[in-house]
Write a structure and sequence with these properties.
The protein has 397 residues and is mainly beta. It has one helix spanning 11-14; strands at 23-34, 39-42, 44-55, 59-79, 106-107, 112-133, 139-148, 152-164, 171-187, 201-220, 223-236, 244-249, 252-257, 263-276, 281-292, 297-308, 313-324, 352-364, 369-380, 384-396. The strands form two sheets. Strands 1-3-4-6-7-8-9-10-11-14-15-16-17-18-19-20 form a 16-stranded antiparallel β-barrel. It has a three-stranded antiparallel beta sheet with strand order 5-13-12, with no helix packed on it. A hairpin with a 2-residue loop joins β12 and β13. It is elongated.
């Protein structure tokens, strides 16, 4: 979840570039959910730190770091008779009862269970970006990031180039690319070389390539718009190693790791429009369309309204509606699959719709300090709900 926190309106919101500023932001996020995909046992408290530094007029550095820890459970099929004492655990640093890795052997129908599998995870994410402004004031940004979990190690490199189409900086064209090569650690997740008695791991890889082209332009003194097209390619190990399916092979039942295609290509478009309604009110609207070759289509419509009460106090309110179709190999019922090659019960690949409700307040404590508080409530049509509370403070210098 990413929330735009620029609550001051008018001129800042209608520039297609960020003005130079040195600042440090500290933020804490409290997150809790009642979710069919992930049932959070202990709420997440995620601290983060962001630093933005300008070096003269030609260079800007931005760095971020976030840490969070989560304990929860995900629903999947499992073998009720499986002995977890072998150490075949889904996580290197924790054990699970029942274990999702009780799979591969024939089981009786009475031995098939469906329920929550406990897990614990600690995640650390860091990123750094350097922007260089050329003589014609075009901008090149080089970025690196790294996300580290027990079972996913994800480095990413990115590059973007922003070209101003006119001397008044009223319109621009920006292209960006990003590349990830993730290491996916499979803790005895159906790999034939895995030692189930010791819980030894195997390592696979996941490659993700993203590209986007954005045209931004000022419509008049009170409004501007951005149009973007994007595409992505994912290849490698795209299966969720913690989710199982049950295959019915001529009346004989087998609990096996779900299987997804090892290639996924996607494309889409985004439209953003912002308008200052008067000196105090500003409206932002967004629409995003996404489609991939897993036959998943999605639409997202979003509106945010900003109100500047005075020079110190601002408010934000927002709504976001999201809907998607299901992937072609998704099966949402808790019964038995046939022998189809690809199969998944991951609810995130199923048909769904959701609403987000957002409220925020920003207060300037002084010329250098400002504080903000964001409340985000999420509700899905499958009785899933979540709440996030984000509190932070920004120091400009």
């Amino acid at each position: 979840m990413q929330i735009k926190l620029s609550l001051s309106v008018a001129t800042l919101l209608f520039s297609s570039y960020l003005y130079a500023e040195d600042y440090v932001t500290t933020q804490f996020m409290f997150y809790d959910e009642d979710h069919e995909v992930t049932n959070i046992i202990s709420p997440i408290i995620a601290p983060s730190l962001e630093v933005n530094l300008d070096f003269g007029t030609d260079y800007t550095f931005n760095g971020k770091i976030t840490v969070d820890a989560v304990s929860g459970a995900s629903p999947t099929f499992y073998d009720k008779s499986f002995d977890t004492s072998s150490g075949a655990s889904p996580y290197r640093y924790s054990t699970s009862t029942p274990s999702p890795f009780a799979r591969g052997e024939e089981v009786g129908e009475e031995e098939i269970g469906y329920g929550l599998i406990n897990y614990a995870e600690t995640r650390v994410f860091g990123s750094a970006a350097l922007t260089k402004r050329l003589e014609n004031r075009d901008e090149m940004t080089f970025g690196l990031s790294y996300s580290n979990e027990h079972d996913y190690h994800i480095p990413e490199a990115s590059f973007s180039y922003l070209h101003w189409l006119d001397s008044g900086k009223n319109s621009s064209l920006e292209g960006s690319v990003a590349v990830q090569r993730a290491d996916v650690l499979l803790w005895c997740s159906g790999n034939p070389e895995c030692d189930s008695s010791s819980g030894a791991s195997a390592v696979t890889h996941q490659n993700i390539y993203n590209a986007q082209l954005t045209y931004a332009f000022t419509i008049d003194r009170d409004s501007y718009a951005k149009l973007s097209v994007f595409g992505s390619n994912e290849n490698g190990y795209l299966t969720n190693q913690y989710l199982n399916v049950v295959r019915n092979k001529e009346g004989r039942f087998y609990i096996e790791n779900e299987k997804r295609p090892d290639l996924r290509t996607a494309y889409g478009a985004k439209i953003h429009y912002a308008k200052a309604l008067d000196r105090q009110w500003t409206l932002h609207t967004n629409y995003r369309y996404y489609r991939d070759d897993w036959e998943l289509d999605s639409h997202a419509i979003e509106g945010e309204l900003y109100y500047a009460y005075n020079d110190k106090l601002s408010f934000e309110g927002g709504l976001r509606y999201y809907t998607q179709s299901s992937a072609e190999f998704y099966h949402g019922q808790n019964d038995y699959f046939t022998t189809q090659k690809y199969a998944s019960t991951d609810l995130r690949l199923g048909e769904l719709s959701s609403m987000n409700y957002l409220l925020g307040v920003d207060y300037k404590n002084s010329t250098k300090f400002s504080s903000y508080l964001i409340l985000d409530y999420y509700r899905q049509d499958k009785d899933t709900q979540a709440i996030a509370v984000i509190a932070g403070q920004k120091y400009s210098f």
